[in-house]
Structures are given as C-alpha cells and as structure tokens.
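User: Quick sanity check before I run a bigger batch. Here is a single chain. Can you write out its predicted 3D structure?
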Amino acid sequence: MKAGTLPSPEPSPNRPTTDPARPVGTRPASGTAAQRVLLVDDSRSIRTLLKIYLMARNFEFLEAESAEEGLKVAEAETIDLILTDFHMDGMNGADFAAQIRANANPKLAKVPILMMTGDPNVAEVRALGQKAGISAFVRKPVSCAQLMTLVDTILPLPRK
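Assistant: Done. Predicted structure follows.
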C-alpha cells in the first residue's frame, strides 16, 4: 500500500471528521462501552484504511503519526488495542511495543499490540516484534478479512 492512495473521507452526519487527538467512530449498541484502538502509523492514508477495515467493530479510534506521539496518547488515554507500523521515522514499531510493555501502568502494559510491516525482511521484523512483546504480526498489504480475523483473535468483543 502506498501512502496517499486513499482519499480522506468527507465529513458527513454519519461519519465524524478525523482529528488525530480525538476518538472517532460510531458507538456500539447501548449497554456496551466502545473499545478504543490506537493507530500508530506515519501514513494518514494507512490509518484511514485501517479505520475503514475495522468499522464493523464500532471502535473509537485514536491516531498518532509517530511512535513517540503514540506513547503520549497511550499514557494519557484508555486504550484497548494498538495497531502500529514497524517502519516510522524516529522510534520503530518494535521499540514502541517494548516501551508499552515496560510501562508502569499494568493495564497499558498488557494492551494487545498488532504490528504491521511492508518490509521485505519479514522474518527479522517479526522476530524484533516478538522480542518486544507484540501480540500479533501482519505483513502489508493486509486485507480487511485478514485484519479483522487477527483483531477478533487478540481483542474479544466486549460483554454487554
């Protein structure tokens, strides 16, 4: 997937605008708290595509353009799942995952982390991620079905 290939959705009554610091997405059925997903990727179009792929789960989304920004968001907000890219300027996704796992907040340290990469050296990237404590790994480009299967595996639906 190349950056810039997916246009940003236009604001509408059924689709909130995207603000990197604010949760967006539709609310689940009443009686169930929305699960919150932190998307950490330096590509806005990839973050948008991931939100489109995950719409069926009615998540609330938080976004970060870098691992450093992702750490700040994760420490300030309640997060149920993190999806991170491996290759980003500054800290990479494996180092980001290791920082999350080492966090003093035990709830944050246990949040499931799915790491993605388009790197041709998949075995090395996967090994770095596993050493850092990721919960799942996927190679880009990822299909909607593949992503949903992984997310459903590492983050069960909330109970009503």
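The longest strand covers residues 36-40.

User: Great, the batch can go ahead then.
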